[in-house]
Amino acid sequence: MGRVLSVASECVPLVKTGGLADVVGALPGALAPRGWEMRVLIPAYPGVLEKLGRVSKPLWRAADLFGGPARLVSGEAGGVSVLALQAPHLFDRAGGPYGGPAGDHPDNPERFAALCWVAAEIAGRGLGDGWRPDLLHAHDWQGGLAPAYLRQQGSRVPSVLTIHNIAFQGLAPADRRAALRLEAGGYRSEGYEYWGQISTLKAGLVWADAITTVSPSYAEELMRPEFGMGLEGVIRNRAADLTGILNGTDTAVWDPGRAPVPYSARAMKGKAANRAALLAECGLGAVPGPLAIVVSRLTGQKGIDLIVEAAPGFVAQGGGLIVLGSGEPELEQALRDLAGSHPERVAVRIGYDEALSQRMFAGGDAVLVPSRFEPCGLTQMYGLRFGTIPVVAATGGLADTVITANPAALQAGVATGLTFHPTDALALGQSLRRLVELHAAPALWAALQRRAMRADVSWEASSRAYAALYDRLTTRPGT
Predict the structure, then answer these.
(1) Model confidence pLDDT, tens digit, residues 313-360
(2) Cα separation, 27 vs 20, whole angstroms
(3) Domain locations in the chain?
(4) Which residues make beta-bridge pairs with 350?
(5) Which of 139, 410, 436, 457 has its CA 20 to 30 A from that of 179?
(6) Cα(173)–Cα(185) distance, integer angstroms
(7) Is CATH 2.60.40.10 what the domain over 2-248+460-474 is classified as, yes or no?
(8) Of 198, 199, 170, 191, whose CA–CA distance to 237 is shortest?
(9) Distance of CA 156 to the CA centre of its chain
(10) Cα–Cα distance between 411 and 401 in angstroms, integer?
């Protein structure tokens, strides 16, 4: 069995701010049947060790890791084998992984450089229990320096960098180079230099042996200026080493069979009961048309402003809307105003509630994901799983996972949702009108729901692709 070290800033079930944590937490279990043993290296933020429960004796120590002592312990959570980096001067802080009430921590570059340094140390020397990886898998800018450190140390361990969202690039002033333990020769346009700054993500893009991102369409989009965020040239230069691999979902957790009233593609009656319960829970009246849900960060990138603009027309056609999320204050207020104008048809819950989100997928008829860009997206996959028809912008992983219900796809019996382009309120409004039409045709709607629920949104195909990549990089025979 091959060994892989995954280095990331978050991991379910220990710490989560977004989809990165879900992927990092799911990969070990998905890859184990493929012949790969994965350990996940994350910082020991407050509360992490308590969630791990029983931990090992220290497997690695340093008297000075970027300004203070550090040690590494191992444990397990949710079936994931975890290496927790204890460095109180870097990670023992109130707030989230990246900041507190005053904003992002100013030493974030050093904090996650330390994580990457330890990853490279493990890859080069192994751990006290004799475990040593055959491959290092780094995630996003927080893991971006790990491939660079491997090269600096002359390590022969291959590395993979996965881009989950290129909008976040791990920028630091150029005068922090020495503090980040980076070789001076790497500060150049072909290295980690980015418009007069250091980019930890670019370092990973340059020095990783292979690059993946979380959908085939996003891999192609990243080579274009409108999506590449200034790194499109670097990615084009690495095109031969770039692979788009869709994320999967935990189908045991996101399961309509665990809904308040269980149902399946073969027995859909429970869906109507969940819908009625959701309407009552959210204080809405009768909704004769489709009940749409939104479970999202409330940001412009997620297209929430487009929903605000298109929703009145949708409501006038008989639709209803329930929103769960938090984000930009002006969008939160716009949604509150929308609900105030349509109290019988629109409900808004600011915040996040995992249990409520699952009840929303169980009871909703459609889920709206009008993102301006979306590397992969899990929300539309949850919608497919629950027969809650996705209405999505035709970008990134949304385009890769939803087959739009145009006449040809309906006739061929392959449609699973609705996609729209361009990403504006007019196109979204047209898709919502089409949603109302489909919902008004019971036989057509039921067939669409059943096809959606039979779509494969598991980790099966994705784990095969990752294992094949690992095998190739380590010259292991296929398993």
Answers:
(1) 999 999 999 999 999 999 999 999 999 999 999 999 999 898 999 999
(2) 11
(3) 2-248+460-474, 256-454
(4) 325
(5) 139
(6) 16
(7) no
(8) 191
(9) 30
(10) 19
